[in-house]
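Design job #97: recover the sequence.
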């Protein structure tokens, strides 16, 4: 079923409360950015984005920022979920999508989690035939990128509108 990915109005209501509580700011996208219709399981797409956005808020210290960037480049649609958080140690990056793995937490905060969120993200992304990658720098933040092939674009009317 088609899902519309808007390039604006992108931050989910579910996590806004937590972002405000932690004093983490959302970076808005330009209002004239348009949108894209892709073939996706709407519920699973929502889970993917929820997990990535919740992590962005969870691992960004007060005063930090997070956001989403959507772009169509070359042969793919790229959805970047980025933050100015604590980052992921380089030695942990190869394992970040492994079930129950939790990267070393250098923030000093007690961060709750099971180590299943990113594993689930990867499984759901790959079930769609997409890819997910991560780039991270300690104390500067992380960017998780979902690579959606252009073949997933559709002109059909969306059943759901996200982000």
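Job complete. Output follows.
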């Amino acid at each position: 079923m088609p899902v519309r990915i808007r390039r604006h109005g992108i931050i989910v209501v579910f996590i806004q409360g937590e972002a405000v509580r932690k004093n983490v700011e959302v970076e808005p996208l330009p209002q004239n950015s348009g949108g894209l219709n892709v073939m996706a399981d709407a519920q699973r797409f929502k889970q993917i984005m929820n997990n990535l956005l919740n992590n962005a808020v969870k691992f960004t210290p007060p005063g930090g920022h997070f956001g989403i960037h959507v772009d169509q480049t070359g042969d793919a649609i790229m959805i970047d979920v980025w933050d100015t958080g604590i980052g992921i140690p380089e030695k942990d990056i190869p394992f970040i999508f492994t079930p129950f793995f939790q990267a070393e937490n250098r923030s000093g905060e007690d961060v709750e989690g099971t180590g299943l969120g990113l594993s689930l993200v990867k499984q759901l992304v790959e079930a769609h035939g997409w890819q997910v990658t991560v780039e991270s720098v300690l104390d500067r933040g992380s960017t998780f990128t979902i690579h959606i092939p252009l073949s997933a674009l559709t002109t059909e009317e969306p059943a759901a509108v996200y982000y």
